[in-house]
Amino acid sequence: MSVTVPMTATRSAVDAMLQVEGITHVYGQGATAHRAIENLSFTVGPREFVSIVGPSGAGKTTLLRILSGLLTPTEGTVSLVGEPVDGVPEGMAMVFQDYSRSLLPWLSIEKNVMFPLTRTEAGRDERRRIARESLEAVGLADRHDRYPWQLSGGMQQRVAIARALAYRPRLLLMDEPFASVDAQTRSDLEDLVLSLRDRYDMTILFVTHDIDESVYLADRVLVLSRPPAHLVEEIPVPIPHPRDQITTKETDEFVDLRGRVARLIRSGGQPDGGGSR
Ligand SMILES: Nc1ncnc2c1ncn2[C@@H]1O[C@H](COP(=O)(O)OP(=O)(O)OP(=O)(O)O)[C@@H](O)[C@H]1O
């Protein structure tokens, strides 16, 4: 059995994969301005799996848009391996909740996975090889010639993951990726993502509303406050790997951590649990 030692919460800029410093984001101006994020800082290390949770509307998607270079923060900086992020960076890929809108229905799943690689220097044979390997990694090699609409929702999300893998990202951002699939498929996809983190040495930042999922997957859970979002607490998850959907969730450690995260979210940012225990 392999055991991964979880990363510690404190990390220097030197060994950071991702560094977020003093991010504030305000949508709009004047009387209608909305302060979504307030002075948010954290660091994520190489191969670390970090879950981000918080109340609805806390600014989690806004944060991922900033990290992926799609949105410039009002204040603060983001660095990926020491390089400032000021546009969509190389080495980063993203998976969204809505797989049905992210896949092109008129292309086979292999072509869907190959499609973004047309912007790279890889030739057609190389693109096909990468796509086949990525589909094999998510268990869909034998369906490469199918179309998205011929697959279940869980399988379509596997295709979206394969497409992200085709970039061979160092950092994978995932925004509530399993919110639209059934419970059993969700468990399978969670275990798939954990195995892919190991196989491809990726750092993963995973936004979710599901508290069990946030603890089960992560080396560390970041809890955000009600808007404007700031960091309420970073909770290390020192549960060994490999994790198991049934036995891990039965351990006292898991139950304690889940309770801690739930109380912090319910209190909306009061570290003492807001008296709602
Ligand atoms: N383009 C925009 N213009 C103005 N306000 C916006 C914009 N995008 C988001 N917001 C506001 O910023 C706040 C944070 O939104 P965001 O989608 O980042 O939150 P979230 O934590 O991802 O939400 P949820 O948990 O419901 O998915 C919300 O109040 C939202 O209405």
UniProtKB/TrEMBL annotation:
Record InterPro entries: AAA+_ATPase, ABC_transporter-like_ATP-bd, ABC_transporter-like_CS, ABC_transporter_ATP-bind, P-loop_NTPase
Entry keyword Cell membrane: no
GO molecular function term, any single one: ATP hydrolysis activity
Keywords: ATP-binding, Nucleotide-binding, Transport
UniProt-listed PROSITE patterns: ABC_TRANSPORTER_1, ABC_TRANSPORTER_2
Keyword Cell division recorded: no
Domain annotation ABC transporter: ranges: 18-251
Pfam families hit by this protein: ABC_tran
Domain of life: Bacteria
UniProt-recorded name of the protein: NitT/TauT family transport system ATP-binding protein
Taxonomic source organism: Geodermatophilus ruber
